[in-house]
Amino acid sequence: MDNNKTSIISDSSLHNGQPHDISRAISAEICENPRPNLKEWKGIWVFAEQEEGCLAEVSLELLSMAQFLAKKRRAEVSVILLGDGVESLAEQLLAYGADRVFLAEHPTLKRYSTLPYARVISNLITEIKPEIFLLPGTSLGSDLAARVAARVNTGLSAHCTNLDINDKGELRQVVPAFGGKVMATILCPKHRPQMATVRPGVFRKGEAQKKRGMIERVPVEIRPEDLKQKVLEVHRGKRPARAIEEADVVVAGGAGIGDKDDWKWVERLAEVLNGAVGGTRPPLDEGWISEDQMIGQSGKTIRPKLYIGIGISGVIQHVVGIQDAKVIIAINHDPKAAIFQTADLGVVSDFRKILSILVEELEKSTSSIRGDRATLRP
User: Fold this and answer.
1) pTM value?
2) Residues 33-62 as b or e (16 or more Cβ within 10 Å = b)
3) pLDDT band at 233 (very low <50, low <70, confident <90, very high)
4) Judging by beta carbons within 10 Å of its beta carbon (0-12, 13-18, 19+), is residue 368 exposed, middle or buried?
5) From CA 57, how far away is CA 148, in angstroms rounded?
6) Are 125 and 154 in contact (CB under 8 A)?
7) What is the pLDDT of residues 187-207, one digit of tens each?
8) What does each C-alpha distance from 17 to 147, 148, 171, 193 come to in angstroms?
9) N or C: which end of the chain has fewer CB atoms below 10 A?
10) What is the distance between the alpha carbons of residues 174 and 234, in angstroms, rounded to a whole number?
């Protein structure tokens, strides 16, 4: 990744208070409102995503990053948790380092709904004025973040791959831009809070500590207009047998696989290596993998001991999801494929020829090992 190719974009890049492009109409209301007194906005917030009383791992990952940012800002880290009967999750968040958990409990908040959640959070932001607000880049978090940002008149950077504090104390929000050709640093110097979403797996969660923070209950105001949406039924898709973010070995395929019959090579190699199957956007669009298996900026960030990419070109949107793998092997028939710049080992060949031999030899080795173990049993 070329760190020299960096574009700085900020909310000061406006013409007469308005952006030059088609976002003019969307931003008009924000630009016309008085700018906040930035000295009044303090502290770093994290939205804790939970479903049916289970805390999403990405919430703890964001909490870890918030602590890193808080040290630089000498600020307090707060987590906002919404639900019903979820006080035990608040205790868990304190154990992972939150200084304060704002707990909003109400039967209406038991299951996520955009309008009630947005009202509770935006009201709390207006009252307490956090400097930074981080949310998961999940379908839930992305939906909520956009609504809240609009209500409190601030900007939002989506799917950040890194966060830091610059020498002015502003949040540096790094995202791939212009088709992945540059890493853009987004700044929001004139509006608060500075908001960003981050996909699961981008940051590492910290270790549980001795609980030291406090829980503060938040009054919940639900208006009739917040109840326009109603969840009638929940359908859960089939999850992969093994989560790619937890696997030591990940075998991933891209557009170069070609068709569903050849996709079986990816699955066979993953099976013989006792690994997980992943992929890029094209296999997802074809229905060969689920969203939980997509790797990259719009999917999962993984850190396996071994990653094997087959038929993957290596655009930056995918590479940001695998760059922390210990060993990266790429198989592609195109010697100029960008994935070879990231790979520790590159194989330029038709993947069918390579995998037919590799899978056969690995299966023989596995069978031999199993036979040896059987012989040694008393």
Assistant:
1) 0.75
2) eeebeeeebbbbbbbbbbeeeebbbbbbbb
3) confident
4) exposed
5) 22
6) no
7) 999 999 999 999 888 888 888
8) 22, 22, 21, 19
9) C
10) 34
CA–CA separation, 157 and 159 (whole Å): 7
pLDDT digits (tens, 9 = 90+) for 26-49: 333 444 456 778 889 999 999 999
Question: Cβ neighbours of residue 240 under 8 Å, at least 6 residues apart?
Answer: 276, 277, 289, 290, 292, 293
* Placement of tokens 């929000």 in the chain: 173
Kindly report each contact of residues 217-222 with a partner whose C-beta sits within 8 Å and lies 24 or more positions away, as own/partner. Answer: 217/103, 217/104, 217/105, 218/80, 218/102, 218/103, 218/104, 218/120, 218/124, 220/104, 220/105, 220/106, 220/108, 220/109, 220/120, 221/119, 221/120, 221/123, 222/106, 222/108, 222/116, 222/119
Structure token digits, residue 189? 């110097």
Domains plus CATH for the chain? 6-19+33-227 (3.40.50.620), 244-376 (3.40.50.1220)
Question: Distances in Å between the alpha carbon of 133 and those of 48, 148, 152, 228, 355?
Answer: 11, 10, 12, 27, 46
Kindly tell me the burial class for residue 178, based on how many C-beta atoms sit within 10 Å of its own C-beta (0-12, 13-18, 19 or more): exposed
